[in-house]
Design a protein that fits this description.
The complex is a heterodimer of chains A (298) and B (254). Chain A is mainly alpha-helical and 298 residues long. Chain A has twelve helices and two strands; from the N terminus they run H-H-H-H-H-H-E-E-H-H-H-H-H-H. A two-stranded antiparallel sheet of chain A has the order 1-2. In chain A, helix 11 runs antiparallel to helix 12. In chain B, 37% of the residues lie in helices and 28% in strands. The relative contact order of chain B is 0.17. The chains are: A mainly alpha (298), B alpha/beta (254). Bound molecules: adenosine-5'-triphosphate (ATP) and magnesium ion. The site of adenosine-5'-triphosphate has 11 residues of chain B, from strand 2 and helix 1.
């Protein structure tokens, strides 16, 4: 047999070739192009209307409401979620049951239903009275619809629902922190709340932030459900306009465009936060720091 | 006679049906170094963790610096203290762990000064001065701004020692401080501990480093199955053991 191998040291190494990647890429690009062509050439879509309403003041104001509701609900939701997570991990069984019950209830019913419930609270309980039952002590009373306008109802609904979902994310983050950390903190005389704030939560953040980014984006889009209770957010604004001028598709494109812009922009602060809470966890000098996954190019 | 720093009286501890400590009594005088040796699972770590009440006990009493650890005695019953009071008691007891347990999100200096600032109420400036001093003492002055992941195991353990010292403890507990280290890094950590002992620190060290025990310990205790089998000077216990179980154990580790 003839040995065709060149035994000289003058050889060149080439990386593995990936012809399949190019074929897939080509097919995908082709499909995408034909889709864009179909949409762009559709006679029924009036693009000048899209341009006209893209910066309409109602749309821009609606976007403001959407962002406001998103940020407020995520803040309330995250704070409540942290409390729920800590309660669920507590030694105290009553706290555990309360937290579990809350989480199960709000995760187990459709968000849409919860929003409608809070929005129509005024119909179920026309009068709202805050006081001590069976006494004459009353702190606050009035018409429900005055005390809880649609915007507040929407914020309550989205915050409570968010809290139930993120509680599990926060709990997973806390559980991911090594038990030795708490022992070290205790041995230095730190109280359990100090340990939670300064030692456990900052480390849990690393695990919490990526799924919370998802939650943020989900929240941004879920605010559109508030259209059902007439909160003037982006989707409500778009559908109000379209019900007058009947340009449904055009206004869907307008609101879709802005949702996409907002969710894309939200990715930047997320990456900044990931970097901040990743400090001390980078691997150095070949010794892998503890982390679940390595992301990046191969 | 010197004052007693630790006075443990028939300490008992069980996990469910598993009786881990079967009545351990020992004393440590101020400035003394006690080494605890014994086979795996004999209860050495558990005993150490009972001393600063990381574990509750089921019977017996532990006095550290004349204070009953973790409990208040009413009649014949020991009532566990509130977390706040236990936290206060722990401030005067430093602990060093086998796996270092440094806070990975903080630099070496931040690790050292977190408790002085947040728990003892030392000003940030004073804490920083103290922290740098302690890091210099463990020969890591130049690593103050490094994160734990950027330090070798030996360096991490020395930061952990500095962190425990920053609370100005009266007693230091070490749970196999060198057994997670590469052999060539063990010496640096032992040197720091030797210096600490020379400076008069009261120390209880669970260790498999017989050389260290022989050189530094005032007293060696051999524990097996949650009971003290033999205790005495390093010479008595390590070089001239009386009990067959001690002899068998030493034969295995030496
Ligand atoms: N949290 C716990 N829950 C249940 N059992 C435990 C717990 N901690 C320790 N034990 C048991 O207590 C016994 C003593 O453990 P301990 O860690 O004190 O041994 P050790 O002497 O330190 O051993 P090693 O030399 O391996 O560190 C073991 O049987 C162990 O399984
Ligand atoms: Mg142990």
């Amino acid at each position: 047999m003839v040995d065709s191998t060149d035994h000289s040291d003058d050889v060149v190494a080439v990386p593995l070739r990936h012809p399949a990647r190019w074929i897939f890429g080509g097919v995908a690009a082709l499909l995408l192009l034909s889709f864009i062509y179909a949409v762009a050439s559709a006679k029924s879509i009036q693009y000048e209307l899209v341009g006209k309403f893209l910066f309409d003041h109602r749309i821009i104001e609606g976007m403001g409401v959407t962002l406001f509701v998103t940020v407020v609900c995520m803040s309330f939701g995250t704070i409540l979620a942290t409390l729920l997570a800590i309660m669920k991990l507590s030694q105290n069984p009553i706290q555990r049951w309360l937290a579990t019950g809350f989480i199960e209830f709000f995760r187990g019913t459709p968000l849409l239903l919860q929003i409608v419930f809070w929005g129509y609270l005024g119909i179920i309980f026309p009068q709202l009275v805050l006081g001590v039952p069976y006494t004459d002590i009353v702190f606050l009373s009035g018409d429900t619809s005055d005390l809880i306008p649609a915007l507040v109802a929407g914020i309550i609904a989205l915050s409570l629902n968010e809290a139930a979902y993120s509680a599990e994310i926060v709990r997973a983050g806390i559980l991911a922190v090594d038990g030795g950390q708490v022992e070290a903190a205790k041995s230095l005389g730190m109280s359990s709340s100090y340990t939670m704030r300064k030692i456990v939560l900052p480390q849990a953040m690393r695990v919490i932030i990526p799924p919370m980014g998802n939650e943020f984006i989900g929240m941004l889009k879920n605010t559109s459900l508030l259209q059902l209770i007439a909160v003037a957010e982006l989707y409500t604004a778009a559908s109000t306009i379209s019900s007058a001028n009947l340009a449904q598709i055009e206004l869907l494109i307008v609101s879709g465009f802005w949702y996409l812009v907002m969710t894309t922009v939200l990715g930047f602060p997320q990456r900044a936060l990931e970097k901040r809470y990743g400090r001390g966890f980078e691997s150095v000098g070949g010794r892998a720091a503890p982390r679940a996954f390595k992301v990046g190019r191969r | 006679m010197a004052e007693l720093m630790v006075d443990a009286r028939s300490v008992r501890k069980s996990y469910g049906a598993n009786q881990v400590l079967n009545g351990i009594s020992l004393t440590v005088e101020q400035g003394e170094v006690l080494c605890i040796i014994g086979p795996s699972g004999s209860g050495k770590s558990t005993f150490l963790r009972c001393l600063n009440h990381l574990e509750s006990i089921n019977g017996g009493r532990i006095y550290v610096n004349d204070e009953l650890m973790g409990y208040r005695q009413v009649g014949k019953v020991l009532h566990e203290l509130k977390p706040k009071d236990i936290a206060r008691q722990r401030q005067s007891i430093g602990m060093v762990f086998q796996r270092f347990n440094l806070f990975p999100h903080m630099t070496a200096l931040q690790n050292v000064i977190e408790a002085p600032i947040g728990v003892a109420g030392v000003s940030a400036e004073d804490a920083k001065t103290l922290g740098l001093e302690l890091l210099a003492q463990v020969d890591l002055a130049d690593k103050a701004d490094h994160y734990p992941a950027q330090l070798s195991g030996g360096q991490q353990q020395r930061v952990a020692i500095a962190r425990a010292l920053a609370m100005k403890p009266k007693l230091m507990l070490f749970d196999e401080p060198t057994s997670a280290l590469d052999p060539e890094l063990v010496g640096d950590v032992l040197d720091v501990m030797k210096n600490l002992a020379k400076a008069g620190m009261t120390m209880i060290v669970v260790t498999h480093e017989m050389g260290f025990a022989r050189e530094v310990a005032d007293k060696v205790v051999f524990i097996d199955k949650g009971l003290i089998v033999e205790q005495g000077t390093p010479k008595q216990v390590l070089d001239n053991p009386q009990e067959s179980r001690t002899k068998a154990f030493l034969n295995k580790v030496l």
